[in-house]
Amino acid sequence: MGNVETQVAATGDVQQPASATMDGFQLVIDALKLNGIDTIYGLPGIPITDLTRRAQADGMRVLSFRHEQSAGYAASIAGFLTQKPGICLTVSAPGFLNGLNALAHATTNCFPMILISGSSEREIVDLQQGDYEEMDQLAIAKPLAKAAYRVLHAEDIGVGIARAIRAAVSGRPGGVYLDLPGKLFAQGLEAAAGRNSLIQVVDPAPRQIPAPDSVQRALALLKGANKPLIILGKGAAYAQADAEIRALIEKTGIPYLPMSMAKGLLPDTHEQCASAARSFVLPGADVVMLIGARLNWLLSHGKGKTWGGKSAKAWGGQQFVQVDISPQEADSNVRIDAPVVGDIGSCVAALLAGIDKGWPKPPAEWLKAIHDKKTANVAKMTDTLAKNPSPMNFHSALNVVRDIVKANPDAMLVNEGANALDFTRSIVDMYKPRKRIDVGTWGIMGIGMGYCVAAAVTTKQPVIAVEGDSAFGFSGMEVETICRYKLPVCIVILNNNGVYKGTDLDPTGRDPAPTVFVKGARYEMLMQAFGGVGVRATTPAELRSAMEDALRSGEPTLINAVIDETAGTESGRITALNPTAKKK
Ligand code: ADP
Ligand code: TZD
Question: Which of 23, 115, 296, 369 gives a 20 to 30 Å CA spacing to 325?
Fold first, then answer.
C-alpha cells in the first residue's frame, strides 16, 4: 500500500511526501473535484492546514472562517442552494465540535452537507492515551448525522468520499460526517493506482418515481375537496422543480401557503398565495396537500386550535396528501390519507399528468372567502406599515427592506432573530425561488453570517441579511470574513438593545437583566474595523439610503438600524411555546 510514515514538522503540520506518489491530501482534493465539488468552507489547523492550502492551489475555492460553526452553516446552506453537498472542513476535537452543530442542523433541515474533520491517531484514541486533541469523533458524530464514515487507508479515500456524497444527497438529504485521521494525509499511492481508486459518483440523487396508485389516490382526494389547500415547504424549494410546482398550483387553482423558505417559489404576490389568510385557511381547509413540508411544530403538528381542533391536541378534521421523498414521514403526527412517496420533481410531474382539462376549480365560495380575508389583512398591514414612529419600530424599518427586496428580486435574503424573523417573514415579500434562507427547522440563532458568505459565493447575487441584535452576535465576527472576501453583503441589524427587546431589569438592581445588551451599541463600527461600510440609521429614510448605497456599490455594509427598545414581544410569534411567557 506504500504507507509513508506521517511526518510531523516542528509546527505539527503534515508535510508532503517527496516521492512521485499521490498522497492523501491529493486524493481528497481530486476525489472532491472529480465530483464537481469546487468549494470548501472551513478553518485550518492540525492536521488539515495543508489540505486547505493545496485545495486552493489546485483551483478550489477555500473560504476560511473565524469559527467552524459559521463555516458549517455556510456549507449546509450551500447544499440547500446547489443540491451538491456543502463541504465543511475542520480540525480535530474542538474544531470538530464547533462544526457539529451545523452537521446536526443540516440533518434536521434535510440539507446535504459533509463535515470533514481531521482526527488524531486511532491507536491512541482507542486506548485513550491522550493524543493532541484526542476524541472519538466518529462515535460522537454518528447520532447527529445521516451517515458517518472513517477512512483509514489512502486507497479508500475515493470510496469514502463517494459514499459521503451519495449519503448526503440521495433520498432525504442530510448531514454526513467523514473522519480523516491525520496519518492518512501522508500515506501515498502510486499515481495511476491513486487515480484509479477515485470514484465519480453516477447519479448521486436518483429520481424516485411515485407509485401510480398513490398518485391516483391523491388526485381523487384533491378532486373531491371543497376547501383544498397546498402547503409548500423547503423540500419543494430544494427540489428545483419550480416550473412544475407552479403549473400544478395554477392548473388546479388551489390556494397555497409557502413555509418560510418556500416563499418566492411562486411570487408572494401571486393571487393564489394565501399567506395573508394563514389563520383562516389552516382551520378552514378540508384537504391539505403538503409538498416537501413536515407536520412538525412549525405547522402545529397538524392538529389543535391552529387547525380548528377543539383543544390543543385535537384533530381539526382535515384530510392530508403528503408528497415527500421519505416513506417514514407520513403519519408522523396525524393520519396521512394519501402519501405520495418520491422526489418532488417526479411526484409533481405525475400529479400534473393526471390533471385534465375538466379538472374542477375549487369552489368559488372558498376562494372568495380567502380573497376577502386577504384583502382585509393586507389593508390592516398597509396602515401599520404607513406609520412613521420615532424611534423606528420593526414595521417602519421592514417597510424599507420590503421595498428594497422588491426592487432587487434576485438578491438573497438571510434572516434570523425572534421578532426580527417573524416580522420579516410576514412583511417582506419574496419573488423568486430559494432567495429566502433563515433559521430553519430548529429556529436557531447563529446561521446569519455563514449563510451570507455561502449565499454570496454560490449565487453571485447581492445578499441582504436582516438580523436581530442578539442573533447577529452569534456569528458577528464573520464580518471580517465578509470583508476579507469582499462579498456584496448588506447586514441590517434591527437593534432594540437586547434579546426580544431591551427593557428588562434585574429586580435586585445588581446586573443588567439576562435579556438586555449595552444600550446604544455601535455595531456599525465592527464593519468599519475591517474596511467595510458601517452606517447608523435612525429613520426609514436613512435606512433606505444606506441599503440603496450598499446594493449599488456591492461593498460589505453593516447598517445599525436603531429601533424602539420597547418594540418586540417575548419569543416573537412563538410565545405560546415559552413556559414563562405562558405563565405570565
Ligand atoms: P418546512 O420547514 O419548510 O416545512 P421541512 O424541512 O419540514 O420543510 O420539510 C422538508 C421535507 O421535504 C422533508 O420531509 C424532506 O424529506 C422532503 N424533501 C427534501 N427534498 C426532497 C425532494 N427532492 N423530494 C421530495 N421530498 C423532499
Ligand atoms: N441560542 C440558539 C443557538 N438559538 C436560539 N434560538 C436561542 C438561543 C434562543 N433565542 C431565540 O429563539 S430568538 C433569540 C434567542 C437568543 C434572539 C432574539 O433576539 P434578537 O431578535 O435581538 O435576535 P428580536 O428581534 O429582538 O426579537
Answer: 115
Residue numbers of the domain that contains 308 = 212-371
CA–centroid distance, 239 to ligand 1, in Å, is 9
Q: Which atom of ligand 2 is nearest to the CA of 469?
A: 22
Please report whether residue 235 resides in a domain: yes
Judge if 393 and 331 occupy the same domain: no
Atom of ligand 1 nearest to the CA of 292: 12
**Contact status, residue 103 vs residue 72, Cβ threshold 8 Å:** yes
Q: Are residues 186 and 263 in the same domain?
A: no
235 CB near ligand 1 (under 6 Å): yes
Of residues 171, 227, 173, 210, the one with CA closest to residue 338: 210
Ligand 1 mean position, distance from CA 577 (Å): 23
Angle among Cα 316, 248, 293 to the nearest 5 degrees reads: 45
Statement to judge: residues 366 and 393 lie in one domain: no
CA-467 nearest atom, ligand 2? 23
Residue 206: inside a domain, yes or no? no
296 lines ligand 1 (CB under 6 A): yes
Q: What contacts 77, CB < 8 A, 6 or more positions away?
A: 86, 111, 437, 447, 450, 451, 454, 455
Same domain, 310 and 413: no
Q: Is 468 in the pocket of ligand 2 (CB under 6 A)?
A: yes
Identify whether residues 414 and 533 lie together within a single domain. yes
Residue 221 and residue 135 share a domain = no
From the list 322, 315, 260, the residue with the least C-alpha distance to 572 is: 260
Q: How far apart are CA 149 and CA 141, in angstroms?
A: 10
Same domain, 75 and 182: yes
Residue at 381 is within a domain: no
Cα 403 from Cα 409, distance rounded (Å): 10
Domain count, the chain: 3
Give the residue from 174, 197, 220 where a domain finishes.
197
C-beta 502 within 6 A of ligand 2: no
What's the CATH code of the domain at 92?
3.40.50.970
| Residue from 67, 297, 395, 500 to probe ligand 2 pocket by mutation (most atoms less than 8 Å from CB) | 500
pLDDT tens digits in sequence order for the chain, 584 residues long:
333 333 333 344 545 444 589 999 999 999 999 999 999 999 999 999 999 999 999 999 999 999 999 999 999 999 999 999 999 999 999 999 999 999 999 999 999 999 999 999 999 999 999 999 999 999 999 999 999 999 999 999 999 999 999 999 999 999 999 999 999 999 999 999 999 999 999 999 999 999 999 999 999 999 999 999 999 999 999 999 999 999 999 999 999 999 999 999 999 999 999 999 999 999 999 999 999 999 999 999 999 999 999 998 999 999 999 999 999 999 999 999 999 999 999 999 999 999 988 899 999 999 999 999 999 999 999 999 999 999 999 999 999 999 999 999 999 999 999 999 999 999 999 999 999 999 999 999 999 999 999 999 999 999 999 999 999 999 999 999 999 999 999 999 999 999 999 999 999 999 999 999 999 999 999 999 999 999 999 999 999 999 999 999 999 999 999 999 999 888 777 777 777 655 44
Domain boundary among 156, 173, 197: 197
Residue 547 sits in the same domain as residue 574: yes
CA 473 – ligand 2 centroid, Å: 10
Would you say the CB of residue 393 lies under 6 angstroms from ligand 2? no
φ, ψ of residue 498 in degrees (nearest 5) = 170, -175
Considering every ligand atom shown, identify the ligand nearest to the alpha carbon of residue 422 and give its number.
2
| β-bridge pairing 533-537 and 489-495 | unpaired
Q: Is the CB of 417 under 6 A from ligand 2?
A: yes
Cα–Cα distance for residue pair 366/228, rounded to 1 Å: 9
